[in-house]
Amino acid sequence: MTFEIHNLEEYLQAISEIKKQEQGSQLWFRGQNRPYYDLQPSLLRHAIQVANQFGTPLQMETPNYYLGHGQTVLVPSIPKLLDKFKAYCIQNKVNIGKPVNDMEWYFLAQHYGLPTTLLDWSEDPLIGLFFAIHGCDYSEPYVNIFVFSPNNLNYNVTKGLLKQTFSEPIPVLNETIQFLLKYISSEDMPYLPICVKPSIQNYRITRQSGNFIIHGNNFQPLNLQPFSNYFHRFSIPKKYYSYFEQVLYTLQLNEYTVYGNKTVVDEEARKIRDEVLALFYDYIEGLKRE
Length: 290
Prior knowledge:
Strand content: 15-25%
Strand order of the largest sheet: 1-11-7-2
Largest sheet: 4 strands, mixed
């Protein structure tokens, strides 16, 4: 379902309508300030297709997500990104929370700018509005806020496929951690995405009421996968950008209040990202020369 939003009252009315349609289920929000952005995690934007669904080698190209399934696709190494981030934080004793497992480290890596298979969502509709409007380009015709029910998505993704059916976001607990860790494994990664509620909290995750969809090895953007109809879209035309910028100003929603202070961890995460991506693209160039 798509809504065109012109003011805050219409935004709240649209949320109310979606809430009724989703039978009172909780909703998650994601703002995107470019109209052409798919619902796709940052790591998968670097995917390179090396063979089609029939195993025929290709000339190392960006996947065409509108074609069939079963392509052979390479992405930068999740373990390498995560290990470098963990090593830096532990060696330098940085205070960004108290992660106790690799899934919690993965959540933190996402919030400090490393490319991951996580897609950020918020329980707060105003945070969704912030990310749609903040940094918007006035040459673009509109921005989007996506809305969906994590309860309904998880139920339908896990029903009949797993031993346990999840009818709400999966928490990171002793009983769930081994299943969730499969999503950052290159060998045993599940196919479909799933909604996860982080257990670790730091300023950014807490302030943004942060939650995640973690992608499996179906690399298609969520809006192109079979259950794309679970995602509703609120579109704000550029005529109303300045109005909503004023709303954010009045509510004191800005880069500082949403992100907090920039830290040395942000800069180090950027260096790790650039280093690992450079190694990945060097590897791809090597394959092309073979």
